[in-house]
Design the sequence.
């Protein structure tokens, strides 16, 4: 039986710059795949290909055995929940920003998703509660608060596939801990692709793939990769994932010039399908 999520010989270029070079990955339903490596290695490109912000120049990304290019964009994105480092919130109430995950959700369901995301207490502390306006791009909220609203939205959506694109990279230790607790609940029963700089969320992954200069140079679980004394071991020892080595020219291409904005067009608000049960 084919894996639930596959990257089959995937390559992606930006002009003369090769961001990914023939990547092969496979993940079964309800498993967690972590992609990490030095800055500019091609990690975020993997997430963007999953969401079809870009398409590969060769190879294919498959979901449930089907090339994702065979799905309509809305059909694909209702199957995938996204929590990124660049959380997009509309200039509307907290309630309506969470409701984007599922437009027919009741206020009770919104509050329950907020509780699961560790967001309810800070929302309830505002004079207007869930009717609090978040401001342009959510700037009335802190970074950690915006992330927890984004997680509540993803919980409400309840899609079977989850993409976490460096979801804690901009947070301090206290906010990261609160967000990580919410993310752990969100990942339960879902096929999860984690794009990571920090090591704190990845040690229990079913599969870790280490990218370097657009290639998958190591694959395995945490203990297997440590025993190989390769790049993963180096990244663990320094605790500086995203800073050690890497092709900085590709980083500039990937993270700045070509990084898509996760804006309104990427939040269709279509009800998601249900998850698969509990992860192994």
Sequence:
């Amino acid at each position: 039986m084919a894996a639930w999520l596959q990257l089959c010989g995937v390559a992606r270029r930006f002009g003369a710059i090769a961001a990914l070079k023939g990547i092969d990955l496979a993940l079964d339903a309800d498993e967690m795949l972590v992609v990490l490596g030095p800055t500019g290695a091609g990690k975020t490109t993997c997430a963007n290909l999953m969401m079809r912000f870009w398409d590969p120049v060769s190879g294919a990304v498959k979901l449930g055995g089907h090339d994702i290019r065979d799905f309509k964009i809305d059909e694909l994105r209702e199957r995938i929940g996204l929590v990124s480092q660049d959380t997009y919130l509309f200039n509307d109430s907290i309630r309506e920003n969470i409701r984007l995950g599922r437009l027919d959700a009741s206020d009770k369901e919104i509050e329950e998703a907020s509780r699961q995301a560790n967001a309810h207490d800070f929302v309830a502390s505002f004079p207007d509660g869930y009717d609090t306006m978040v401001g342009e791009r959510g700037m009335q909220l802190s970074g950690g608060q915006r992330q927890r609203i984004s997680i509540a939205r993803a919980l409400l959506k309840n899609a079977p596939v989850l993409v976490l694109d460096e979801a804690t990279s901009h947070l301090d230790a206290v906010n990261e801990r609160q967000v990580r607790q919410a993310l752990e609940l969100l990942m339960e029963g879902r096929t999860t692709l984690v794009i990571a700089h920090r090591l704190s969320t990845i040690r229990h992954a079913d599969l870790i793939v280490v990218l370097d200069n657009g290639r998958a140079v190591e694959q395995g679980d945490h203990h297997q990769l440590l025993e190989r004394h390769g790049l993963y071991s180096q990244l663990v020892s320094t605790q500086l994932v995203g800073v050690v080595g890497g092709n900085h020219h590709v980083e500039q291409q990937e993270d700045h010039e070509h990084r898509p904005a996760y804006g309104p067009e990427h939040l269709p608000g279509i009800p998601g399908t249900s998850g698969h049960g509990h992860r192994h």
